[in-house]
Amino acid sequence: MKLYEWLQIAIGNEVEAADVYDRIAQKSEPEIAGIARVFMEEELSHVERIAAIKNSIREFDGELSADMLALAAPNDKTKQSFDEELGFMSRKELFLFALKGERESIELYSELEKLFEKGSQEQTLFEKLAAEEQKHMFFVLQQLQGL
Ligand SMILES: [Fe+2]
């Protein structure tokens, strides 16, 4: 898989994660809702930071295939059914969904980090992102224990 595609998947995961925390915030008491909103903002900042790397790669790579560009295009239909799915989930299901997403993100960023030279801008970014996702995962696990 090409780096560009990986980054596109990472961006999709982050957008989904932000939606999940938004839903959790809507269904939770104020204290938990506040934390969920902070996480939502963090996931959205991940989208921007990863997109910046993705765009810098695109500038250097003039040979993107049509397949890759199609992958990068937003898929409205999938987005809509995902939104509906989230709307029907209980708090526990939402937290479980968030947990799965965080695990996948940590795995993905740990892999992406290995592609770059230690100390480079990209390696540092993915290391930070993985650490933030780990923080999210611990919080989600704590909440699940209480449900
Ligand atoms: Fe996260």
Automatic annotation (TrEMBL):
InterPro entries: Ferritin-like (IPR012347), Ferritin-like_SF (IPR009078). SUPFAM superfamilies: Ferritin-like (SSF47240). This is Rubrerythrin diiron-binding domain-containing protein.
